[in-house]
Structure prediction request, 63 residues.
Amino acid sequence: MGRGRAKAKQTKVARKLKYSGGGTDLERLRREMGVGAGVSAGAGDTGPAADDAAERAEGGTER
Prediction:
């Protein structure tokens, strides 16, 4: 017993986060994550899996 207030508070906070109008500072998030503005998410992919994906995208040879 005694969990009612804590659960109500969690519910209130969750609803506030879910239905808030945004407020996410995307530039700040980029700086914190260390991602440059001109860098795409997949630009640093290397290795055999990335090579295979690139070949499939170009319509490369079949194995």
